[in-house]
Each structure stands twice: as C-alpha cells, then as structure tokens.
Design brief:
This protein is an alpha+beta fold. The protein is globular, with a radius of gyration of 25 Å. About 35% of the residues lie in helices and about 15% in strands. Helix 6 (about 145-155) links the parallel strand 3 and strand 4 (about 160-165). It has 22 helices and 21 strands. A ten-stranded mixed β-sheet has the order 11-18-17-16-12-13-14-19-20-21, sandwiched between helices. It has a nine-stranded mixed β-sheet with strand order 9-4-3-2-5-6-8-1-10, sandwiched between helices. A two-stranded parallel ribbon has the order 7-15.
C-alpha cells in the first residue's frame, strides 16, 4: 500500500510540475507586466555633455585612428590577443566606461558573481550617463534570479535586455523545469546562442571564448579557465555590430518582462528598486582593477602598444536563421553546418603544411572528420597539433569520454598530435596578483560588515539584499568555507603555491574526496583529483593554419557548433598575427603544461588480434566494451639526454619513448568509480556526440 501511495504522490507531483511549467500568461497579462517595467524605468541622465562624460581612452583613440586611415578599398585593422584573464576583464570595464554612444554585449553565460556584477554595475552606470546599452544573453545561463531580471528590465530607458530562445515561457530554468523542457521541447532546448562579443561605439570589439563569470577571469576560488579573446579595431567591427543586430531583432530574442516568471514577479511585487547585489567576496581585488581602468599609461602599455597592425581580417558568424526548422531541409544532418563552421572547414581544407587547433572538447563532427581524414591521406599531409583538455582539467566529463573513445582514430586515421592540458600547468598565464586569483583571502565578514566598492559615479554598488529568487537554489556567490594556506610574502605564482591554494577542502587533503559522489561531475564539473589546488582547464577556441592565418572565436570545432549552436570568429590572414597566436597555443602544449597522447605498448599476447578487436569495438555505436584502448598519456621527463624544453613532443617521433614515459589513461585523477563512468559513456554514449 505504501508503494502504491508513494507512486501516486510522485505521479501527482510530476503532473503538477508539468502543468506549472507549461502554464502561460495571456497577452493582456504580459502587456500589464511590460507596462510596470516601462513605467519604472528611469529617464534620468546624469551627464549633459556630448561625450556622455566618458572616461578618456587610449584604446578608443587608437580605434578612431584606425577607422580614419581606412577606406573601402584599403581597410586598416589592429588586433590584440587577450590571453591574460584579468586584463580581459579590465579591458571590458575600461571600454564600457569609455563609451560615448552605444554598447552591444552578447554572451552565452552571464552570472551574478563578482566579475559579472562588476560588469553589470558599469553597464548600468553607462546607461545613466546617456549611453544606449543593449544586452543579449542566451536563456539557459542568463543570471541567477528572477528578481535580477525584473530589476534590469525596469532599471533605465537606456538599458535594454533580451534573452535568446527562451523555453517554456520562462527566463530561468531551474532543474525541474529543465527536465520538463527536455521532454517536451528538446529541439528548442538544444538550439543555443553561443556567440560572444562586446562592441563599443561601433569602433572596437571583443570576440572570443570568455563569458561573464569569475572562472573566466582568474577570479574562481578553485577552478579557472585558460581562455582567449581578441580585441579588434577597424571596419570589420561593423560586421560584428550587424551580426548582433540580426540576433537582437530576431523573434527568438525576448525582453524578460514578457516571459512568464518575470512577468508574474512584476505583477505580484512590482519593479524592484535596484538589482540584487551581494557584497563582493574580494573588494580589494575589485578596487585594484577599477584603479587600473583609469590609468592611461597602463592601458596604453597593455592594450595599445602591443596591438598589431593586421591585414586580411574577416568576421564570420552564424545568423539566427540557423535555428529555423527549414534551414537543413533536404540536407543530410552531418552536412547541415552553419556559416561559421563552413568558413572554418574551408580554411582547414586549404592547409598545406601545419594546423594548430585548440579546443576544450575534442569531439569532432562528421564534416570535420572527413576534412582531417582527407588531409592525412595526402601524399604529404600537413602536421596537425591539437591542444585540448585532459580528464583532470576538463569541466565536461561526458565530452572527454567521447574523445577518449576515438583516440585511436585521431592518432591513426587523422594523424593528430594531441596534447592534453594539465590541471596544474607549471607555465600558464594565470594571474595571481592583486587583480587575479590571489592566494590570500580576507576573513569572512558578515553581510552588513562587508566592504563596499564605489561605482565610477559615486554611489555604492553593494546592496543589503542577497536573497535568491523563488525558483533558484544556486549558491549566492559567497566565498566557500575552508582554511587557506597563505602564499609566502613576495612569492609568485608557483606550481606549489597553486596546490596550496585550497578552496573549501580539508586542511590536510590527500585527495578531493570531500566532494560529492564520483558521478557528481559527470556532465559539467571537474572530476576529483588526487591532490587539491587551484586548477585550470582549457576553454580557448583557436586555430592557426600554415603559420599564415589565425582564428579566435567561440566555436569548439564540435558537432554542437556545426548544427545546434550559433557561433562566431575573427579570421586574420596575417603571418605576424598567426605566429603570435601559434606561440600562445604552443605554450599550452609545452611538456610542463600538457601530457602527450601516444600509442600504448602492444599487448603481450596476439597484439594484431587485440588491435583488430579494439578497432571493431570502437566502431560500434553502442557496446564498445573492449577494455584496452589504443592510446594513453605520456609525460616528458627531463634527465640525461632529455633537457628541459618548451617544444611539444611528437608521439610519432622515432625517439619519443626516450624522454616520455607513460602515466596512465587519466593522470592526476582520483579515479574511484570514475573509470566506470568513462567506460559507460565510451561504450554506450556515442549517440550523444551530436549534442556535446
């Protein structure tokens, strides 16, 4: 009887949840909510000057000079690779403060942690100065709280916010709603806007992999992304702005006040006076970065002087029509790729000597596989070097499991030289200074005692409201509990110090076993490691072909980017730029920063038979159960005849084994039952490849 009633209660709960998820508001109710938001928007402009009281900017001065020198027949551009994460945040803050007319911001993720709050504070301040600010965020990761969305929709007439492709008539999708959307709206749920750009005054733009979240700017407490952006000044910025305009005007881009959950909030509570704002976890870090944003000499040295004059610049990007049902009508699914993917594949097809590819998730689409197979079958195939994540570094365990399944194909059929990023790279652009992932942290403070950081225009940006929305149970951004080991005074960012930078772990950890179950990170969290520390994972998406063309963008070179996500990239056919980008990628492949994937030793018994059976098992879409994979990880070991080097070793070199030793399939990982998860997804998960 208990089981019967338990089943009935569960069924009733699911029915109620489904009804609540699918319930929609009428036109009149939406209009009423929109009216509340519109009536609450301030029209006050704090500056009467023609330049909107913008901060003087050597970066925008450079952009104006570039535009002035350009003609339709002879366009001029300057470009700068943004490898250092705090600099990428600093530049964004400075450009927003320097805007005189307009700001367009497009992103996949916009959180409510320190870095995201800081950017939003500056966007609000720009709107109050008289700058037209437009923000477009994909629905799946658009802020944390319904209250925040309602407040931003009601904030200022110069500040507009839209969410792309909302599912279930909601701005926020908590986990139960996500489950419902997976059942009823799978096609719509999977079509996401992965584009990321920032355009200021139509003069200068930033494109690349970084979202708006602490992990992308070395502000994460236990994990940060090794990512890359590109600053571009010149006429192709107009193409970036036009692409943003296409998404902004798409019917799929919806103001939050016209979505059910935000509309209900507005009708029930009215417009919030200000967006919710938690105290900054590290106010001294925010203060240091804001001071740099007003330092002309520093800004010129970091962003103007090193910017290269480049030629052959183009911006390639998908349009919202990629998500229309009829786009791929009559085209095989494996061939239906977007404009960005086509441009990248055509670039790869033209490779003659060398390809450097950096992607966090090495899951190749069928068109990409066809291109690389054709390259490798040439009489003189180009060398293909791949920089990607190891299992220890990745934030996407399932994607890695799919990559692990096809290692033999990647090495044998495509000729890939794969270098997997280490979680504790010894030489990586991780900022541990006053504006980065400092090892020391101030003691926890009560909310009413937390220090406040002032906006550019004076008033405090910290609020006493720190509650969550009624449908959110996410963390509120407060620093995790735990004891830290402070860095030695005057010390730099050594490998040892990063390992000592414990975040929310036991004071004497021998592993990260204090975390949740081995499968807690199966989808989108880093796996447990044998030792604790401030680790990194790749998120950069870049390509260099023949040391003459460089690409920085949002495309992971994966099936999702081909057919489901919209993507964008800047392509620069300039040898000087390509060499600089290649040096950045090769640094991530260096032995101190990456393991090299190579063929493991042959089986002792019937190696030819074993290889054939493993190959047949790999080709099976399900039941790939062969226990022994073709390849494993190798680490470069300096010693006699093996001097320290920055050159990534080739697994195909005749003397590869002389200096490189096998370290297992999953080095650094506290495997536990994780091996079972890897094997399960390797055996049965190949059908997931198109959506990874």
């Amino acid at each position: 009887m208990r089981r019967t009633w338990g089943g009935r209660w569960l069924a009733a709960w699911l029915v109620l949840l489904l009804c609540s998820g699918c319930a929609t508001l009428g036109r009149a109710q939406r209009d009423a909510a929109a009216g509340i938001a519109q009536a609450a928007r301030s029209t006050q402009v704090d500056c009467a000057r023609a330049d909107a009281c913008a901060t003087p900017s050597p970066v925008l001065d450079m952009a104006r000079e570039v535009w002035a020198a350009s003609t339709a027949q002879a366009p001029h551009h300057r470009a700068l690779i943004l490898d250092h994460a705090p600099d990428a945040l600093l530049l964004r803050i400075h450009l927003i403060r320097s805007a005189r007319r307009s700001i367009e911001l497009q992103t996949y993720i916009f959180d409510e942690d320190d870095s995201a709050q800081l950017v939003m504070d500056e966007l609000e301040a720009a709107a109050f100065r008289g700058v037209k600010v437009r923000i477009l965020i994909d629905q799946l990761a658009a802020l944390r709280k319904v209250e925040t969305l309602a407040a931003l929709a009601s904030r200022h007439a110069n500040l507009e916010l839209r969410l792309y492709n909302p599912v279930l008539d909601r701005a926020r999708l908590p986990l139960p709603m996500y489950a419902i959307a997976s059942l009823c709206c799978w096609r719509q749920l999977n079509r996401r806007m992965h584009n990321k750009l920032l355009v200021v005054d139509g003069l200068v733009g930033i494109v690349g992999g970084r979202n708006y979240q602490d992990d992308y700017y070395d502000w994460g407490e236990d994990y940060n992304f090794r990512d890359r952006d590109l600053l571009l000044a010149g006429p192709q910025v107009a193409a970036m702005q036009a692409n943003f305009e296409a998404f902004w005007r798409s019917p799929r881009s919806v103001p939050p006040e016209r979505l059910g959950d935000v509309a209900r909030y507005l009708r029930r509570y009215g417009a919030p006076a200000t967006p919710p704002h938690h105290p900054f976890r590290r106010p001294e870090r925010v203060r240091a970065l804001l001071a740099q944003a007003n330092d002309p000499a520093l800004l010129r040295a970091r962003f103007v002087t090193p910017a290269l004059e480049v030629g052959g610049v183009s911006f390639i990007a998908d349009l919202p029509r990629k998500h229309r049902e009829e786009t791929s009508a009559g085209v095989p699914a494996e061939q239906a790729v977007g404009a960005a993917s086509r441009g990248l594949l055509e670039l790869l097809q033209g490779a003659q000597h060398e390809v450097l590819l950096q992607t966090p998730y090495l899951v190749m689409s069928k068109p990409a596989q066809q291109v690389f197979r054709a390259l490798h079958q040439r009489a003189q195939p180009p060398r293909v070097q791949i920089s990607t994540n190891s299992l220890a570094a990745t934030d996407a365990f399932i994607a890695y499991a799919m990559s692990y399944k096809y290692k033999r194909r990647y090495l044998r059929d495509f000729g890939f030289e794969i270098h997997e990023f280490k979680p504790f790279p010894a030489d990586a652009p991780l900022e541990l200074g006053e504006t980065g992932a400092a090892l020391e942290r101030e003691p926890e403070a009560e909310p009413d005692e937390a220090m406040e950081v002032e906006r550019a225009d004076g008033p405090s940006v910290a609020s006493d409201r720190d509650g969550k929305g009624d449908d959110e149970d996410a963390a509120d951004g407060q620093a995790p509990q735990g004891q830290d080991v402070p860095a030695a005074p005057g010390s730099g960012g050594s490998l040892l110090e990063r390992r000592l930078a414990r975040r929310g772990l036991r004071s004497e950890p021998v592993s990260e076993a204090g975390r949740l179950s081995p499968f807690a990170s199966s989808g989108g969290l880093p796996v447990r490691l044998k030792r604790a520390g401030l680790r990194m994972g790749l998120h950069a998406k870049s390509l260099v072909v023949d040391a003459r063309v460089g690409v920085v963008g949002t495309h992971n070179f994966d099936p999702r980017g081909d057919t489901l996500n919209t993507e964008s990239a800047v392509v620069i056919a300039d040898p000087a730029f390509a060499r600089q980008l290649a040096a950045s990628i090769l640094r991530d492949m260096a032995p101190a920063n990456a393991w090299t994937i190579g063929r493991r030793d042959d089986a002792l018994l019937l190696p030819g038979v074993e290889y054939t059976l493993a190959k047949l098992s790999e080709r099976m879409p399900i039941f790939d159960l062969w226990p022994r994979k073709y390849a494993t990880s190798f680490d470069y070991v300096p010693g006699p005849g093996c001097p320290p080097t920055q050159v990534p070793p080739s697994p195909f070199a005749a003397d590869f084994r002389r200096c490189n030793q096998p370290v297992g399939d999953f080095p650094e990982v506290d495997l536990g039952l994780k091996w079972l998860g890897v094997r399960l997804f390797t055996a049965f998960g190949s059908g997931l490849s198109p959506i990874l």
